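Quick one: structure tokens for this chain, please?
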Amino acid sequence: MGIVKYRYTVTMFSDWHIGSGLSGGAELDMVVLKDHNRLPYIPGKTIKGLVREMSQLLCDLDSYNTTEDTLMSLYGSRSEKGEDIGGNCSKGTLFFSDATLEKDLQEMLLEKQYQDELYSIVASTAIGEDGIAKKHSLRSAEVTIPLILSGVVMGDFKSSEMFIQDSFSMIKRLGIGRNRGCGRCEIKLEKEEQDV
């Protein structure tokens, strides 16, 4: 079949948080992942992991005539913990770029220095059985406002294009706080015209 290129578009319907693994000092427990211009993005490996998870679910449900070998071929092999690793593991035939804001929007935000307007802070606390907040449980997290981001997935789809499209469409939430209403999304996949 050869190399095929798709553009995927992530439309966020609620605040969302892709963690940087860092804290913001005394004020913030969790900070959003940002690029060198302080703009939000979703790493390609995050998208790949979500799509792979949905593909595995479709495979387990036997919705397609898809085998574990097909999944390994498309996404590569993983460690027991679920992350991609080097060594004896194989690399899949699919490449996922980071999902970023459209170029025009990035330029406008940078020109007007509106980066900080893309984020807000939410606080949460744990409530005990008595209905009272537990001591030392107050946490604050930076979240990103609803936005639209896009990226590219390309590679040898090995006649599995519909399977991969369905895997993308099954993703309804991403990031941290999904069980608290954060990260509601829709991801659409659209084939790009091949250069002749």
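Residues 44-60 form the longest helix (17 residues).
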